[in-house]
Amino acid sequence: MPGFAAAVTGLGLITPAGIGVEANWDRVVAGRPTAATDPDLAGLPVDFACRVPDFDAAASLGERTAWQLDRYQQFALVAAREAVRDAGLSPQDWDGTRVAVVLGSGAGGTSTMESQQTRLLDRGAGKVSALTLPMGLLNMAAGRLAIEFGVRGPNMAICTACASGASAIGVARDLLRSGAADIVLAGGAEAAVTPLFVAAFNRMRALSRNKSDPGTASRPFDKTRDGFVIAEGAAVLVLESERHARARGARVRGNVVGYGASADGHHITAPDAEGLGAEQALRTAMDDADLTAAEIQYVNAHGTSTPLNDVAEAATIRRVIGGHAAVSSTKGVTGHALGAAGAIEAAYSILALQHGSVPPTANLENPDPRIEVDLVTGSARSGALRTVLSNSFGFGGQNAVLAFAAA
């Protein structure tokens, strides 16, 4: 059923660009990077990351609640509370059986699992926390949101690596289209800036090693890029059926109108050099949205700042859409939040539609000559926008593309 629109009525964001939608948008549009040396990574070959600034979980959630949650769950709950407020919804008034949660994460409660493994080895089995699994499992952020908001409809945790947040939004739209829910809280959360994850990504040579100037290390599409900068954060979108949003007089920020998913079937980490899986996801999203290439005005690229991804993605965009659409990667500002990235960038895509502004790619000073798309550099580009695509690609060759349209 092409042309089905899920109304986005609420946004919640907590990322390295700031806590809250307004702080995020201001920094992303300004193109100010967030990467910095991280004391928690001291002694590692890569000792910098993009962290959520000034985050006080106890102040945001209450000391007891914060203590019971892994950091990725804390982020999810903070973002969800903002999104529900932004949508003008009151959980006390809704029918919980008609509300769903779909939340993506690539890793789940990494800091909890790492710390409890250390405790097991150092102090024995009797000292492992009874909360290890409720805090560490990948599905528990979605479960926590259901408990917080009295949700009794479908409750799902999606893991497609770095496409998880985008996949969750696509699945959420499918739930609305099927009639299984009227409202869905959808998005992604990640808090994998931990010694084990950073060491592992470094061993794969996926991370930038620009320790001398971390602020410029995330530089998507630049010919001097040498890897991504790991990040953390969460984004939650409130999606509603058009009928439900209209009936309650909701403000609609934008619409999710298409979703495409595919697999490369190629390699455990490297993208298909020909971009065939990414191309399939792009074309599927456009077909689902009933959009032609000429109608796409902006692509929020996956744009990780890795040598292989950026070239393959740009070639695919050029082949499928052409050279007319503006292209940028907000990871130049935020770094790569892994399973949360697709949801964060979906929120930025909606904000771009609302504000008529395409964020620039931070740190992009010398575009790779092999990249033949219309890259937005330096400053934001203003102009009315009607249709936007957002790309997300994950390890294992899992791809998700979302199509958005202005309200």
Feature tags:
407 residues; Peroxisomal Thiolase, Chain A, domain 1; 2 domains; 12-stranded mixed β-sheet; 16 strands; 3-oxoacyl-[acyl-carrier-protein] synthase activity; Ketoacyl_synth_C; lipid metabolism; EC 2.3.1.179; acyltransferase
Q: How would you name the CATH homologous superfamily of the largest domain?
A: Thiolase/Chalcone synthase
How much beta, percentage-wise?
15-25%
Amount of helix: 25-40%
H/E series: EEHEEHHHEHHHEHEHEHEHEHEHHEEEEE
Please indicate the count of domains: 2
Radius of gyration: 20 Å
Low-confidence residue ranges = none
Architecture of the largest domain, according to CATH? 3-Layer(aba) Sandwich
Distance between the termini: 19 Å
CATH class of the largest domain: Alpha Beta
Keywords: Acyltransferase, Fatty acid biosynthesis, Fatty acid metabolism, Lipid biosynthesis, Lipid metabolism, Transferase
GO biological process, one term: fatty acid elongation
Family: Belongs to the thiolase-like superfamily. Beta-ketoacyl-ACP synthases family.
Organism: Saccharopolyspora erythraea (strain ATCC 11635 / DSM 40517 / JCM 4748 / NBRC 13426 / NCIMB 8594 / NRRL 2338)
